[in-house]
Structures are given as C-alpha cells and as structure tokens.
Backbone:
C-alpha cells in the first residue's frame, strides 16, 4: 500500500493537470447546443478509464446522453466495487458573476475553479486516479472494479434507470461507491447515509383569454398572479408545516440516536445564517436546521413568472401565471404519490374564477444506506486513515435519485464518500473544488479498495 500512496503523492500535480483537461469540456446536459461536447466528454472518460487500467471499456448509446462503462475483473474470488458518477454539468448562467471563465479551470488558494469541479468531475476523477495508481505500482488493484459514468444526472438520469434494469448482470457488484456529496466541514472525513428525494411540479393558472388593460378590466376578473400567490401562500401553515393532506404520512421519524448525533456535530446556526446573509433562519417548527435540511421534507417555489417583468411600468392584467414548485422528500415518501397529493390539493385550493393546470416535471426517490454494511465500515476506516481523524456520518438535503435504483436492483450497499463542500458553489457561479480534498479523496479511494478487498 505504501507504494500506491507514494505514487499518489508524487503525482499530485500531474493529476491536477489531467483534471483540468476534463474541466475544459463544456458537457452541459440540459442544452441541445452542447450535444457534441457531451459526446466529446464521454470519449474523454472512456480514454481515462483505459488509461486507469480498465480492460474493457465501452460507450453505451442511449436515447439520451452516452453512458460510459469500464471494467477490470482480474481479481477472481475478490469483491467487486462499482464506481458511479456523472460527467455532465449544470449550465453556467449567470455568466457575469464568474470571476474566471467556467470552462477555463483556474487555481486560486489551492482550489480549482470551473463548472463541474466539485459536481462531479473532480470527484469521479479521484477514483480514476486511485485505480490507476494500483496498476502503475503493485500491478493491479486487489478487487474487481467496474465504472458506470453517466451524462444525465443533472437532468434526472432518465435513461440510466432502464439501462441498469437491462444490465443487472453486467453491473453485479458487492458495493457501489459514489463520490457526489459533501464533507460535513473542511478536513472532516464524512460518509453520507441519507439523501432526500424530489417531486418537481409546475402550476399554471389561467384567467382571461388574453392580457387585459388593468384599468378598464381591473375589478372584473380574477388576476392569475394574485391567485397563484394566494395558492402558494396556503401551502404552509404558520408553523412552517406543509398543508397537503397525507403529506407527512410516510415520513420516517428521526430516531433519538440521530437527533443526539446531530447535536454532537456542533453545527453553528449563527455562523450558517451569517454565511447566507440572513438575520434569522426559518423553517419547520420543532426541528433544528440540520434536522430540517437532512430529515424533514420541504416545499419551495423555484421560480414564478407571468405578466409584465421588464423594466419600468406597464399596466396589465395578465392572462397567465406559472410557478415551479419542488418538494424535497425523505424516506419513505414516494414522489409519485406526493405528486398526486399535491395536484389534488392545488385543484382544491384553486378558486372557480381561474383554470389551473398542474404538471409533474420529474421526481426521484429519497434513500438511506445501511450504516453497518462491510462496505460502510471499510469506507469509514479508509477515510479515517487518509484524513487522520474520525469519520462522521451525516445525511444530505440534496438528491441523487439513482441511488435507490442501485440499492433495489443490484442489492448492493451504497457508499456515499463525497469530498465536496456545500460551500463550493455547485450549480452556481464560481464553482470550485478544494485540491487538498481532491488529493485526500484519491488516497481515501485507494484505502477503500484495499480495505474492502479483505472485508
Ligand atoms: N451532486 C448533486 C447532489 C448533491 C448536492 C449531493 C450537494 C450532496 C450535496 C447532484 O448532482 C444534484 O445536483 N442533484 C440534483 C438532482 C435532481 C436534478 C434530480 C438535486 O439535488 O437537485
Ligand atoms: Mn452531482
Ligand atoms: Mn448537481
């Protein structure tokens, strides 16, 4: 193992330079104009998997973006690790707020700035390099390795789920290793054991058949924006609870042990509020901030539009108003069931003088991974060795919907070994990744491969 770690240390700069090439590819999954970049990026991943020592590497075309698969099965009788990640990234706008161009990776204060740096290119690259380090030093890794790297995570992994269902044998493994989450705090080794799910809805309210003069018609018909605002306002009660009937029915209660463990993390609500520029935090009554983000479902309006939104004033009574509303879900809520409950509730809240259309845009299941699987124990040890500190166990407010599919279909424990930080601006301008965490992530990955080989 010493040789492997030595190699990783000696190649620290070389690995960073290779990561830069990865970050230069604008693989934005949601924009059709980036289709060629997506394909280039899939090819780049394929080449890197070959370089890492995978003996069979293949791009699977799907109806959406390509799925890259690689395997090396040269350790018969040993466990198999499946590494999952995504090479697609979020759009860059608002571009004006970036201090350096999003696809020209720039290093400042030991952090690398680029779209995808922490979500998720930097994090998947750690595993490419740890595996490669075994082949370059001790001949090969002590376990079998499979890689599954997709290009549609940021748009809901629509084509990955059927791919998994159709390739259960190909993907068979003893553990799924994912680095697409965050550390609890800088320098603190962390494993995530719970993710929230998602139900993403759109509500369109229609009033009159065209925009109207707000003077000559104001007072005669219901205003769709006023009405939509009224509906949204009714979705929470005064205690911050969501009012949809049956919404909390399947919510798994926080255990006493979890609540105690979260207290031990010494989360500073004051510091958190200050960082976000708010004078007071706000949320569901009866729960701490960590509990609200990690273990309680929430409902948020993501965008609202209609009427006149340009500069200056235009007197208009709009015909339509639309809101995009997402709900983050926790175990054991079902996004399809929640979407139905939401739709019914909105229809009931809507007054007769408007028409309301509710659409379900996409969703994903929440997940919980077991804390006592051999994979989790090995991962905790692996990180502990790399960081020289005890590993903490947290949940996360974000979502990786494909995680439940792995657990259900491959019946393998999932390890969420994320090396990002929630402060690294994922999905926002100036996304970056701490290069010390990148390096420690490569070592953690190598340690995990070693630990799991005898687990
Ligand atoms: N890597 C994130 C999820 C995440 C964010 C985990 C922060 C831990 C900390 C992932 O790429 C993501 O953005 N997921 C989307 C899922 C959605 C598009 C279905 C999310 O959470 O909004
Ligand atoms: Mn991600
Ligand atoms: Mn993301």
Residues:
């Amino acid at each position: 193992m010493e040789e492997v770690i030595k190699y990783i240390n000696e190649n620290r700069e070389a690995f960073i330079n290779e990561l830069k090439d990865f970050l230069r590819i604008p693989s934005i999954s949601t924009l059709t104009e980036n289709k060629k970049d997506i394909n280039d990026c899939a090819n780049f991943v394929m080449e890197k998997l070959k370089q890492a020592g995978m003996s069979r590497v293949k791009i699977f075309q799907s109806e959406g973006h390509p799925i890259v698969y690689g395997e090396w099965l040269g350790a018969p009788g040993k466990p198999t690790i499946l590494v999952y990640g995504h090479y697609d990234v979020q759009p860059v706008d608002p571009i004006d707020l970036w201090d350096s161009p999003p696809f020209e990776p720039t290093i400042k204060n030991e952090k690398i700035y680029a779209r995808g740096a922490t979500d998720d290119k930097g994090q998947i690259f750690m595993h490419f390099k740890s595996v490669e380090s075994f082949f370059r030093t001790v001949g090969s890794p002590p376990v079998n390795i499979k890689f599954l790297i997709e290009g549609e995570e940021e748009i809901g992994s629509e084509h990955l789920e059927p791919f998994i269902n159709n390739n259960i044998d190909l993907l068979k493994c003893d553990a799924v290793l994912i680095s697409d989450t965050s550390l609890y705090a800088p320098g603190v080794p962390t494993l995530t054991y719970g993710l929230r799910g998602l139900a993403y809805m759109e509500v369109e309210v229609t009033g009159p058949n065209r925009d109207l003069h707000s003077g000559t018609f104001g007072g005669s018909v219901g205003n769709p924006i006023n009405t939509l605002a009224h509906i949204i306002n009714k979705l929470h009660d005064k205690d911050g609870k969501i009012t949809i009937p049956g919404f909390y029915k399947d919510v798994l209660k926080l255990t006493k042990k979890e609540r105690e463990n979260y207290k031990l993390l010494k989360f500073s609500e004051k510091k958190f509020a200050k960082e976000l520029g708010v004078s007071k935090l706000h949320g569901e009554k009866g729960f701490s901030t960590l509990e609200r983000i990690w273990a309680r479902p929430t409902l948020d309006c993501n965008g609202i539009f209609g009427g006149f939104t340009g500069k200056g004033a235009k007197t208009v009574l709009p015909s339509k108003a639309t809101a995009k509303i997402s709900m983050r879900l926790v175990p054991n809520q079902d996004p399809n069931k929640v979407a139905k409950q939401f739709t019914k509730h909105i229809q009931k809240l809507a007054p007769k003088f408007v028409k309301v259309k509710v659409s379900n845009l996409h969703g994903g299941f929440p997940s919980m991974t077991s804390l006592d699987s051999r994979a989790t124990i090995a991962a905790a040890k692996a990180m502990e060795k790399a960081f020289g500190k005890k590993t903490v166990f947290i949940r996360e407010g974000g979502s990786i919907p494909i995680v439940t599919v792995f657990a259900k279909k491959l019946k393998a424990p999932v390890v969420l070994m994320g090396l990002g930080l929630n402060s690294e601006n994922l999905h926002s301008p100036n996304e970056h990744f701490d290069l010390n965490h990148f390096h420690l992530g490569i070592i953690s990955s190598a340690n995990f491969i070693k630990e799991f080989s005898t687990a």
